[in-house]
Amino acid sequence: MPENEILLEVKNLKMWFPITQGIIFQRHIGDIKAVDGISFYIRRGETLGLVGESGCGKSTTGRAILQLYRPTAGDVYFEGKNLCKLKGEELRRMRRKMQMIFQDPYASLNPRMTVGDIIGEPLEVHNIMKGKELRERVMELLEIVGLNRYFINRYPHEFSGGQRQRIGVARALAVQPDFIVCDEPISALDVSIQAQIINLLEELQAKFHLTYLFIAHDLSVVRHISDRVAVMYLGKIVELTTRDKLYSDARHPYTQALLSAVPIPDPVVEEKRKRIILVGDVPSPANPPKGCHFHTRCALKIEGTCDVVEPEFKDIGGEHWVACHRVA
């Protein structure tokens, strides 16, 4: 297996949700452009962090990749196959290789199902195993994620948030996938539990050679777990590069503003550091600004260019991609 093999490639992905008017005769009056033409790839075995403010399209990207939402336009290639062209049984077989860990461990587990049923369901759906063999596999998965194997007959309400998220991780691992979308898996948890879940995800990645798309809005967490980081703003990726390069040499004004908000545990450095405060709110994805989407909040905008011409998402060297008119 080549070390730099590309497992997943996304090309010009768009996910627009229609806005309609009327009760009986519904008219299409616009679109919410949640994801608006993004392209990137993920190599086998690596973790790509996807960061940005709430509502910028991160979770929608993850769901569109897995075809939980059918994309409006664009292509998603997984192991060379275009998922957007697959349907029915063929797509179901591919789904076994791709799983998702959801954001809210309280909402993503069915309260009427036991832990054994929740973790075992993917194994039954894909006809992998049944009966005693399935029960033994579920117990093994519980131990892999750090839970007691005899929790198998308990219900979700008997567990804490961190334990529930471990159950969600076990469910994702059940069918032995190659690729997992981690959709803000720690944002609903206590800070003390967050580190445990991050460490668990890293251990599982090393053990089972997993590939992650790690969605988050906490840049310090992303720095810890990711190999490369993509920064998203209002449906577009504005910067994409390696973790170290992003944190040492961020080029897009939006990335610089995000990084300036991350606290540094050194009071001397923290005091000298300049915070970049973004003015205004994120514009509506139903009516994004013309030109560069960020120009309405950017202190470095060029009048007559940034508000008219959309910047090209280009490679500035060393696998560093930026969409900004100021960056040559």
Structure description:
The chain is α/β, with parallel strands linked by helices and 328 residues long. The chain has a single domain, classed as P-loop containing nucleotide triphosphate hydrolases (Rossmann fold, 3-Layer(aba) Sandwich), CATH 3.40.50.300. 30% of the residues lie in helices and 24% in strands. The chain has an eight-stranded mixed beta sheet, sandwiched between helices. Strands 2-1-4-5 form a four-stranded antiparallel beta sheet. α3 crosses α4 (131-144).
Topology:
Layout: E1 6-21, E2 27-43, E3 47-51, H1 58-65, E4 73-78, E5 81-82, H2 88-95, E6 98-101, H3 115-125, H4 131-144, H5 161-173, E7 179-183, H6 191-208, E8 211-216, H7 219-225, E9 228-233, E10 236-242, H8 243-248, H9 253-260, H10 267-272, E11 314-315, E12 321-322
Helix pairs in contact: 3-4, 3-5, 4-5, 5-6
Radius of gyration: 21 Å
What is the CATH architecture assignment?
Answer: 3-Layer(aba) Sandwich
* N-to-C order of helices and strands: EEEHEEHEHHHEHEHEEHHHEE
Residue-averaged pLDDT, rounded? Answer: 91
- The separation of the N and C termini measures 36 Å
Strand order of the largest sheet: 6-7-8-3-9-10-12-11
Summarize the structure.
With 328 residues, the chain is of the alpha/beta class. It has a single domain, classed as Rossmann fold. The protein has helices at residues 58-65, 88-95, 115-125, 131-144, 161-173, 191-208, 219-225, 243-248, 253-260, 267-272, and strands at residues 6-21, 27-43, 47-51, 73-78, 81-82, 98-101, 179-183, 211-216, 228-233, 236-242, 314-315, 321-322.
